[in-house]
Amino acid sequence: MPVPSSAYGHQGAPSCFDRIKVGFMMGFCVGMASGALFGGFSALRYGLRGRELFSTVGKTMIQGGGTFGTFMSIGTGIRC
Amino acid sequence: MDQGVDVIAKDAWSPQYPDLNQMDYAMWDSYAEVYMGCPWRIMEDCGGAFSMGAIGGSLFHGIKGFRNAPSGNYRRLISSFVTLKERAPIVGGNFAVWGGLFSAIDCSMVYMRKKEDPWNSITSGALTGAILSVRNGTGAIIGSAVIGGVLLALIEGFGILFTSFTAEQFNPANRMMEEDPNVSGQQIPFLFVFTILSGVVHYILHNL
């Protein structure tokens, strides 16, 4: 019988590291999305267009994803 | 509204939970107490948010202090430590304020609305943002409320997405190979995580 894949990769109770990984993943997703939204709006308001706009928004997205992911992994880490 | 309950209730809130749609008022009170730990969750979230902010703040401000220092390894270390010491508790405090207020509003919403759905947290996030910037004028209030609401909506959406993603293994076809659904079904207490993460808004607003 094939083992169904999950975010944790295996059956049974997930280990602490697995939780932290999923926490980081979720934080990264949220951070990317919010970075795209808020960074995009503020860059547009600042008057950036074209290539500049994309590079700025991309940077904001990565930054937000990293920040959110780090905090989220810490948040799940202190809980397990 | 019922939709949200269903989405969350599918896997993590497995059979030991009561049917949310069939409960009367008295049952909702005990539900909030037993399953959400309600009055005490506020303290718990406050403390958890503080620790998280303090740890994350030490990380980020340690790096910042290290980079913002005169040359020389010793001086870099000293600067890193000084910045960390000054700033990390502030970040922790910001997180704690956010998490505590958020949790308090969330619990109040469970008591008042007799419902448990993503709108609770979204509204709580917006209200928290609004309340925390109430001294900065109408524009700031609206801005923070929008940011809080959007962020919490994002978190809720990704939470539901992740929950349904990790719940794939619990569909009826695979049910038989599952020994203990209570242990492996509930991976992360998502409500707590939402609460905690909401503190990040404050950090982002002040530092980026």
Commentary on this structure:
The complex is a heterodimer of chains A (80) and B (208). Chain A has helices at residues 16-46, 50-77. Chain A is mainly α. Chain A has one domain (16-79). Chain A is rod-shaped and about 50 Å long. Residues 1-15 and 175-189 of chain B have low confidence and may be disordered. Chains A and B meet through α1 and α2 of A and α3, α6 and α8 of B.
Task: Name some characteristics of this structure.
heterodimer; A: 80 residues; mainly alpha; 0% strand; B: 208 residues; 8 helices; 75% helix; elongated; disordered N terminus; membrane (chain A); transmembrane (chain A)
- Counting helices, strands and paired strands, the structural category of chain A is mainly alpha
Strand tally of chain B is 0
Helix content of chain B: over 70%
Sequence of secondary-structure elements of chain B: HHHHHHHH
Distance between the termini of chain B: 35 Å
Total DSSP helices of chain A: 2
Radius of gyration of chain A, taken over Cα atoms and rounded to an integer in Å: 17 Å
The span between the termini of chain A is 31 Å
Structural class by sheet pairing and helices of chain B: mainly alpha
User: Mind telling me the C-alpha Rg of chain B?
Assistant: 20 Å
Task: Outline the biggest β-sheet of chain A.
Answer: none
Order of helices and strands of chain A: HH
Largest chain interface and its two residue counts?
A: A-B, 35 and 36 residues
Total strands of chain A: 0
* Low-pLDDT residue spans of chain A: none
* Fraction of residues in β-strands of chain B: under 5%
Oligomer: heterodimer
Question: β content of chain A, as a range?
Answer: under 5%
Function (chain B): Essential component of the TIM23 complex, a complex that mediates the translocation of transit peptide-containing proteins across the mitochondrial inner membrane.
GO cellular component, one term (chain B): TIM23 mitochondrial import inner membrane translocase complex
Membrane topology (chain B): Multi-pass membrane protein
Protein name (chain B): Mitochondrial import inner membrane translocase subunit TIM17
